[in-house]
Design goal:
Blueprint (H helix, E strand, L loop, with lengths): L7 H41 L18 H4 L2 H9 L1 H6 L3 H9 L12 H25 L16 H11 L36 H15 L4 H7 L6 H47 L8 H11 L1
Helix pairs in contact: 1-6, 3-6, 7-10, 8-10
């Protein structure tokens, strides 16, 4: 018995066509999502990596792993666009972050709404990958080990100060730091006022945070200045050593100032309490009214 299959060929073609049409939107959506994640990764590396990690050791700001689960999409979009505005408006989470991270407010960004969406897509994707890796390994995340940096030598601190104020040129010919910044330190003769003062930068950001920012700065002005003239690893280490020394000296000077002020006040008060009786040693003792009364009575 022979089957006539000529009529089945068009039917199969139609079915396959419908299947392809049904799968096309899903494939397109997947491709678009992958493109958004890739674009978000580039944004993260250029603008966020210096201060934030995703499942890594904490830098200047909080670890962003799982942040999409802790915060709403709307809150994240608003915060990325203008953290300063949310802090000024008294947003509870923004204020809490300000207090937790040494009074530092993340600078407002110039990214578009589309780029914010791409950035959040990457953070979510990376967070899921980190969580999967943790589950596969042990089911419990272990904090990244923090290796204490070796104490900087006086020579390193001096070289860092020279780099900061341009007495020693950067290898890639980038501008000296004191063109825009200042540090209150005896080793610095003067600095700029175009950008934030950096005396307490090490106290606020720590060595890891400063290292990340200097090696891969997220700030537009610094990206313009050092984008094609990046600092080399040794220069970054020397600058961090100088900032650490400047912060420690500033803290010690503040403690010494408070102590010296107390001692000076105590000595000054003691001197005055001793001088006043000496000056008034010949002053008459007694009531003026009593002497007037005595004269009136005798007369």
């Amino acid at each position: 018995m022979k089957w006539n299959i000529s009529w089945k060929i068009p039917v199969c073609a139609v079915v396959m066509g419908w299947v392809f049409m049904l799968m096309l939107p899903a494939q397109t959506s997947l491709a678009q999502n992958q493109a958004a994640i890739a674009a978000g990764e580039q944004i993260f590396q250029s603008s966020c990596f210096a201060c934030h990690g995703i499942g890594e050791a904490q830098r200047v700001g909080p670890d962003l792993a799982g942040v999409h689960e802790r915060r709403s999409q709307e809150w994240l979009e608003q915060f990325i666009l203008s953290p300063q505005t949310m802090f000024d408006q008294g947003d509870e989470i923004a204020v809490a972050l300000f207090g937790e991270f040494n009074g530092m407010v993340m600078p407002d960004s110039a990214v578009s709404d589309q780029q914010i969406g791409q950035l959040l897509a990457y953070i979510e994707s990376r967070s899921l990958a980190v969580a999967s890796a943790v589950d596969a390994n042990s089911g419990a995340a272990e904090p990244a080990a923090v290796i204490a940096a070796a104490p900087a030598s006086p020579e390193d601190v001096s070289s860092g100060a020279d780099l900061f104020q341009g007495r020693l040129r950067f290898e890639n010919s980038g501008p000296a730091c004191n063109a825009c910044h200042d540090v209150q330190n005896d080793a610095i003769t003067g600095g700029g006022a175009l950008a934030v003062e950096l005396t307490s930068a090490y106290s606020r950001m720590g060595g890891a945070g400063l290292t990340a920012i200097l090696a891969n700065t997220p700030f537009p002005a610094m990206q313009t200045a050092y984008g094609e003239k990046p600092l080399v690893e040794e220069e970054v280490a020397l600058l961090v050593a100088f900032f650490q020394s400047a912060a420690e000296q500033s803290n010690q000077q503040q403690k010494n100032y408070a102590f010296n002020l107390f001692i000076s006040g105590a000595l000054g008060a003691g001197f005055l309490f001793g001088l006043i009786p000496f000056i008034w040693r010949n002053r008459r003792v007694g009531s003026v009214n009593q002497s007037i009364y005595d004269r009136q009575r005798l007369s």
